[in-house]
Amino acid sequence: MRHAKKINHLGRTDTHRKAMLSNMASSLILHKRISTTVAKAKALRTYVEPLITRSKQDTTHSRRTVFSYLQDKTAVSELFREVSPKIMERPGGYTRILKTGFRKGDAAEMCVIELVDYNENMLAAKDAKKTTTRRSRRSGGKKAAGAIASAAAPAAEKIAKASKAAVLVEDAKVVEEVEEVKVVEDAKVIEEVEEVKVVEEVKNDAVEAPETETPAGTDETKE
After folding, report:
1. Residues 142 and 125 in one domain
2. What's the CA gap between 88 and 94, in Å, rounded?
3. Can you give the CATH number for the domain in which 110 is found?
4. For residues 181 and 187, what is the distance between their CA atoms, to the nearest angstrom?
5. How far apart are CA 22 and CA 44, in angstroms?
6. Are residues 110 and 193 in the same domain?
7. DSSP alpha helices (H): ranges in the chain?
8. Structural domain containing residue 161
């Protein structure tokens, strides 16, 4: 049983397997894509991607480390000069495996393994997809909500203005009623004051008028 055996030996000895992967990695870096079996491509991916990550730091130590795996100065120079600047912003996943069918003879599953940033057709299609707008339920809901909100805004403003006008009218009515009450109260007070003045004048006239006395010695007998 193959418990915990993650390495595919590919039917080769250790030295043969390492030499084959080194040659395949150099070919991939130089030509940007190669055709091979799916099993070899998966093994190559785990072999070459750490080397590409190492190329992000262009130091003597990094170059010597990569050269110890590739054993090819041309491939090392191509990796650090051409490939590294293109994949600098990519956080992993530098290769892509595209299955192409089965090989005649042994029916081995074949594929093309390539560097992601060098497939111009896919990059162009990806850019085209970014430029085209795609409607979704969420975006449609947001747009509908925005349209409803924008349509409801004028109505809300009208309602607010109407409520303000109603408040102003009610305030004006209250002010008018208060003024009318004040006028009525002032009129009543004035009438009461005038009545009091009239009563006091009548009393004063009654006090000031002298009583008519009959003259002395005048009798009815004199007639």
Report:
1. no
2. 10
3. 3.90.1030.10
4. 10
5. 9
6. no
7. 14-31, 38-54, 60-70, 73-78, 84-86, 120-131, 137-208
8. 137-208
Residues 35 and 91 in one domain: yes
Domain end (from 131, 166, 187): 131
Counting the structural domains of the chain, the total is 2
Provide the whole-model pTM: 0.56
Determine the 3-state secondary structure of 115 from DSSP.
Answer: strand
What are the tokens at 106? 């042994």
Each residue's pLDDT, cut to its tens digit, for the chain (223 residues) gives 889 888 999 999 999 999 999 999 999 999 999 999 999 999 999 999 999 999 999 999 999 999 999 999 999 999 999 999 999 999 999 999 999 999 999 999 999 999 999 988 777 777 777 776 666 555 555 666 666 777 667 767 777 777 777 777 777 777 777 777 777 777 777 777 777 777 777 777 776 655 545 455 545 444 4
